[in-house]
Prior knowledge:
Elements: H1 24-27, H2 32-38, E1 51-53, H3 68-80, H4 93-103, E2 115-118, H5 120-132, E3 140-145, H6 150-158, E4 161-168, E5 174-175, H7 177-183, E6 188-194, H8 206-219, E7 223-226, E8 251-256, E9 269-274, H9 284-292, H10 300-312, H11 315-337, E10 342-345, E11 352-357, H12 368-379, E12 381-385, E13 394-398, H13 403-420
The structure holds pyridoxal-5'-phosphate.
Amino acid sequence: MLDNLPKKTSIIKTKEKWKVSASTNAKNCKNYIRELVDNLVLEPNPEKQVIALSLGDPTVYGNLQTANEVVEAVLDTVRDGACNGYVPCLGLPKARKAVAKYLSRDNVIYEEKDIILCSGCSHSLELCITVLADPKKGHNILIPKPGFPLYRTLAENLGVTVKMYNLLPEANWEIDLNHMESQIDEDTAAIIINNPSNPCGSIFDYNHLKDILDVAEKYKIPIIADEIYERLVFPGNVFVSATSVSSQVPMLVCGGLAKRFLVPGWRMGWIAIHDPIGAFENEIRTGLCSLSQKIIGSNTIVQGALPRILECTPQTFHDGLIDTLYENARIAYKYLSTVKGLEPFMPQGTMYMMVKIQMKNFPQFSTGLELMQKMMEEQSVFCLPGDAFGIPGYMRLVITIPKELIEEACKRITEFCGKYFMEVQ
Ligand SMILES: *Cc1c(COP(=O)(O)O)cnc(C)c1O
């Protein structure tokens, strides 16, 4: 039919050659870790097996596997064939209900309507930033420093400015509340907090959370709480969700299966809406619902399996994971505490350990990046430099790798630091 229409004369010039360029949006999408790592010259010592203490993926070495119950739940969902179609964009009702139940604790009760299933916690974060921060109004959001670099990637790609508030290494990586308050302005649309923290491995206690929420309350700024490491805490510590602190602050809590269930590739995340005074009632719930329609919901197989994953995974699985991580953390801490020029921070949870590098004792290197590069070259050990999280002069170790490799890596770090350490006055 269209062929019969009279040809419209084109006013644009025909072109000789193809030139397809990427949009400004795509060009402005930055992965800060990749950018940093790609610019490093990383040539391992061919004599030594590379030990990567840099990848925040607990599955890479194969020593940590998800629970059988989790695998069975997914296999049965696939075989059953009832979850192959589209489901509601916010998620299957029974899966949302299961997440609501899983997260309801410490006097905080969620219902099905409070849960939105997303394609990984990264996607949850993106929806939360998108719904709260408006680039057309010049909004900014506050993010932690050091912190997970994805916050900045997501915000800036949306045209939302980020402002960083400091965490205090000497105060167990608590938020510098005065600094946080000083970063707030009239255009601040949300504050992201991350507890337990990647990269610090630290946990906020009830009182600190209360102080944070008091600041948010004073300026009426909603919180985006990244709690992907919820309950991943070592003996002697407790995880307190920001939502269980009594306050009027509306919050969007982001979480998912990736870390606690050891399946980051399954891309199952969620948003839990905690709204004690109904501030999100009119627009934010609707906005999140509309935004979830962009990708027509998350993976339906994992959604179908979710009730069983959350209800039937035995506590022994969770305890076992914590035992392993805790043991690795203690090994790394013990080794590195004896290394002159390094100051490890014993994590309270998560899968990471931060180590301060006393750069003045390593005058051969002008930056931590250089030191890290040389360590790869001589010892084939690679950790992410603190620069990736906004804090130069530190390195972050991933403690999910097998115990033997943690020990071997620590030996090599010890040898390396011993070689370059210089006493200074
Ligand atoms: C791993 C991680 C995420 C992302 O989790 P996915 O579910 O894999 O998208 C979010 N926040 C922090 C702090 C993380 O470490």
